[in-house]
Amino acid sequence: MSQDKNTFASGTNAAYIESMYEDYRKDPSSLDDSWQKFFEGYEFGLTAVVEPTGERREDAKVEAYINAYRRLGYLAAYLNPLDPKPEIPENLHVTSHELDHVDANRKFLTANFGTGEMTFAEITKKLQETYCGSIGPDFRDSNNVEEVVWLQQIMEAHNNKPSVSAESKKRILQKLGEAEALEHFLQTRYLGQKRFSVEGLDALIPLLDGMIDEAVNVGVHEITMGMAHRGRLNVLTHILKKPYERLLLEFEGQVFNSFDIEGDVKYHMGYAHDVETFSGKKVRIYLSPNPSHLEAINAPIAGFTRARQEHDEGSSEGILPIILHGDAAIIGQGVVAEVLNLSQLQHYGTGGTIHIITNNQIGFTTNPSAAKSCAFSSDISKMIRMPVLHVNADDPEAVAWVTKIAIAYRHKFKKDILIDLVGYRRYGHNETDEPSFTQPIMYKKIAEHPTVFQIYSKKLIAEGVVTEEESASYLSSVKELLNEAQKSVHTKGFVAHPTPAPAAFKDILAYRKPDRNEVMASVITHVSEAKLKELAQEILNIDKTFTPHPKIIRLLENRAKMMEGAGAVDWGFAELLAFASLADQKYPVRLSGQDCKRGTFSSRHAVLFDYETGKANELLQKKNWAPVNVINSPLSELGCMGFEFGYSVGNPNTLVLWEAQYGDFVNGAQILMDQFLVASEAKWQQTSGLVLLLPHGHEGAGPEHTSARPERFLQSCGNLNIQVCNVTTPAQMFHLLRRQILRNFRKPLVLMSPKSLLRHPKVISELKDFTSTTFKEFLDDTDLKSGSKAERLMMCTGKIYYELTELREKNPDFAHVPILRLEQLYPFPYEGLSELFQARYPQVREVIWVQEEPQNMGAWTFVRARIPRISDTIHKVDYVGRKNSGSTAEGSAKAHTAEQKRILEEAFALATAKTPQRLARK
């Protein structure tokens, strides 16, 4: 009789579990966490439950009542400035807790609430003030008891309403006045221009001002910020102190280059500055540029911050990341979840990010009910159990208090925390929209609603903190400065000199655009044979106590043999040698991707694992070298690639690489490619040296494991913005990676990396290829003694070269056909190819471009207009490859083989001037 599939308590298993229980009773820590919890529950179930009676029963209910407010009180908090304070929900009523009969004056001594005996009325009042006022804390999802207790204590100690000094109140009012005055000035002087006003969320400015001051007081000396465009102009001017003149010049549109396609709209721009805080201390702040893909900046700012922290002696305490989100964007865009998942991982964490939702309760024209399936936009944070502090943006003192809590929490626990600043949007999505078309009721309320400056000013005047004249001066003084700035901008010949950036940002902001000669110049990348062998020995030096996998032992032996004689170095080892050579020269290396340690195709093995213990051995981490981190990333493209882009910006002297498991997986990071990688230099004068390793090649694996979509990158090439390569030898890859960091400028490198070539017997390089040469943008056909008589030749890039040469070796009729390899597609090597054709192929009339990819993909559409410019003798450029298609490759391995065979045969038929037998193309 078969056993029930859900029953594990067979005789054997039961005995095993009994023995484990005996171990648990002796020492619970000797067992796995899951078994500890199992036996805890088991013992709990054995314990007799005694129903409390009388006073004990009421004491227990009061404790439950307190904890209900702690968990759910935020649902009754007064968060929306446009609506009345909500009623206390039924599940927080005394009747729901069977406490309606309790006398209000009866005293209780609670376990951890308050400082002594309190009446039931005092308990209720304290709970409602703490959890249902202008602040709604949502923090009880945390599985860390220490964090929960800490948050309870810090909030309950002040009923979430600590006293605020008169000086601080004036500072808050001043920052509100600055925010409002700027927006009013821009609205009247530049009517109709988009600025994505902060109005309705004006409290963001004193929030950030106070946060920066608090951060500096706990040791922060640098702040990195990412945000979308809502309120950005106000943040630039009143937090980062961007001069009014420079802002107004952008509104005037006077500064531009009529020829170059460069720059970006004013509400996407970044800035960096040394800022003096309220307490008189200095802090440097970097606000990253950001496109309109709102949450895309999350990943780059996380990577940028991590790079800055590692540069800052590896400390996260001194550098604080702040990310601002829109309420519709944070819940609607998947990259948020990807980046939150990175936050506590070893190689991605930043010691806690402070998140702020600028919550205007609407997404363009979409109401919250149509934008999310949860109660709050901040509920996305529950995936990492992040504490959330909802706060009413019309209560500036409450905003100031949650700011203090957030900084203290991050400083203590080194984890993320979120402030949900709930306000509204005084105008439409931008200042040219008519919002009452779609939200008529809301905008009637907004039209009648006073600004937060007016509300808070009235409060402080009533308290005697400021006079009416003093309050008015907070607006008038800013308006005067703006008037003077505008007069200056209108002055003939006015030049707004750039504000000096912090010295610490010298490397990351040192923008210098190299010309074509510099980009195409050869760089010394070779390494002496003695040094190469020394590096190899270091890599292969395995401690005798380490037990490699049996197959790895053979791999290590083969790699040792590669250094003997003339050498026959394969791809995997050449790559490790490139990394080691840079680390030896004190250049750090960071390579991440979903299977980087071993390599998707089991070729890299940069990290070995002990066959007996599983302990990791990082072959490239050596005492006298710069760090080489090879990282297995989460299953994320946009988040992880964006992180590495930001890291490469934050530390330009590190070779930063991101590897896709298969090349087409980069599709998941398309926003990052289009908006950052290929365009950041033109838009923001922001340079990156990020390397993308994208496995590419038609090998019968089907449409999803074939193409890295080179055509997409090539379509985006322009004005020397990136490099696109498809190299075919280990030495070429070695020199290319070294060139990437040894040049005195940075350009992203997109490398179509191999799959089958990793083990191809001909894809090897001799030692001399590493020790006496450098990277070559193209490779001539050295198998042919002379090409001067050739009238036709083939050109290709990547793996198909080896298939062409293999067929040529088998057929004597094809022996005279030259095959050139383009190793660098962009920048296209016109000059070198022209010299080659003039010297070696002066009679070539026809060039046959051969590729595996469909005709509308691959490099064909990119090279066909460029090849004729190589030489005046070229009169025809023909194409051989797959037909136009919506898919990258065949789904059948047999169909793939037949198509590859057709392409090779057709290419040689054209090259030998025979009438080609064109096979039927599917």
Describe, in plain words, how this protein is organized in 3D:
- This protein has 922 residues and is of the alpha/beta class.
- It has five domains: 11-46; 54-78 and 85-156, no CATH class; 166-254 and 262-491, 3-Layer(aba) Sandwich (Rossmann fold); 522-771, 3-Layer(aba) Sandwich (Rossmann fold); 783-911, 3-Layer(aba) Sandwich (Rossmann fold), CATH 3.40.50.
- It is 39% helix and 12% strand.
- The strands form five sheets. Strands 3-9-10-8-7-4-6-5 form an eight-stranded mixed sheet. A seven-stranded mixed sheet has the order 14-11-15-16-18-17-22, with helices on both faces. Strands 19-21-20-23-24 form a five-stranded mixed sheet, covered by helices on one side.
- Helix 6 packs across helix 7 (204-217) and helix 7 (204-217) runs parallel beside helix 13.
- The longest helix has 24 residues, at 166-189.
- It is globular, with a radius of gyration of 33 Å.
Strand arrangement in the largest pleated sheet = 3-9-10-8-7-4-6-5
Global shape: globular
Major sheet: 8 strands, mixed
Q: What is the average per-residue confidence, as pLDDT, rounded to a whole number?
A: 91
Report Rg: 33 Å
Helicity, in percent? 25-40%
CATH topology of the largest domain: Rossmann fold
> How many structural domains in the coordinates?
5
Structural class: alpha/beta
Report how far apart the termini are.
Answer: 56 Å
What is the number of strand segments? 24
Number of helices: 31
CATH class of the largest domain: Alpha Beta
Portion in strands: 5-15%
Indicate the CATH architecture of the largest domain. 3-Layer(aba) Sandwich
The assembly state of the depicted protein chains is: single chain
The CATH homologous superfamily of the largest domain is named: Thiamin diphosphate (ThDP)-binding fold, Pyr/PP domains
* Low-confidence spans: 1-13, 45-50, 915-922
